[in-house]
Design a protein that fits this description.
Elements (H helix, E strand, L loop, with lengths): L6 E6 L5 E6 L5 E5 L6 E2 L11 E6 L2 E6 L7 E3 L2 E2 L2 E4 L5 E4 L2 E7 L4 H7 L11 H11 L14 H8 L3 H14 L7 H15 L8
Parallel strand pairs: 3-4
Antiparallel strand pairs: 1-2, 1-11, 3-5, 5-6, 6-9, 7-8, 7-10, 10-11
């Protein structure tokens, strides 16, 4: 049976305080708005309607719905939402003046199947490769919405290895995770996302 992905909403309020909301498949429905009964309550944002948008778990995936619920609209990756839309890892949601990042930390079964042979088995990684991968993903701890993967220098300092050694391990990981052909500036982010989405690295590791 498909299970919903382990997902989270991450956002900062007007005072700069960071908040996260875990999305549990047992809840299946999360309301967003200014109403006191909202699951994600945005009382300080005057552009948010009392019931602005709804997140619903459909099958094994989270979707967002704004079917005329809000006065000012809901935007996903800069596009105004019309009806329902499936959310994907890293989607940026704007509700009023509040920007929310949607994060996934483990893939649903059909997503894992789609990745297929691009995803290695955790047993195929050496202890050092897994340590490098964990250090690479560490900035994403606690669902940090706008984090960047750790640099080679940061990983080297954490693991007491040389930068050249880290580069060698990363090249091997790029190949194992099927991101070796991506542009250089996309490889690290894609590697971190695939590692967390597949469940090879989870938040407990970070």
């Amino acid at each position: 049976m498909d299970r919903a992905v382990e997902s989270r909403l991450s956002y900062s309020d007007k005072e700069g305080h960071h908040h996260t909301v875990d999305l549990s498949p047992t809840s299946a429905r999360v309301t967003i708005g200014r109403s006191p009964g909202s699951d994600l309550l945005l009382t300080e944002d005057d552009e948010v309607s009392r019931l602005h948008a709804v997140l619903e778990c459909v099958g094994s995936h989270w979707t967002i719905l704004d079917d005329g619920l809000s006065r000012n609209g809901t935007f996903v990756n800069g596009e105004r939402l019309a009806g329902r839309r499936r959310l994907r890892q890293g989607d940026s949601i704007r509700i009023g003046g509040t920007k929310i990042r949607y994060l996934e930390f483990g893939g649903a079964l059909d997503e894992a199947t789609r990745m297929g042979t691009d995803m290695p088995d955790v047993r195929s990684l050496t202890d050092t490769q897994r340590a490098v991968l964990t250090a690479l993903c560490r900035p994403y701890k606690h669902g940090a919405a706008f984090a960047n993967p750790a640099s080679n220098q940061q990983i080297a300092q954490e693991l007491f290895l040389s930068v050249d050694a880290i580069k060698t391990h990363l090249r091997a990981l790029f190949a194992k995770f099927g991101v070796g052909d991506l542009p250089q500036n996309q490889k690290r982010v894609s590697l971190a996302e695939r590692a967390m989405r597949s469940g090879i690295i989870n938040e407990r590791d970070l």
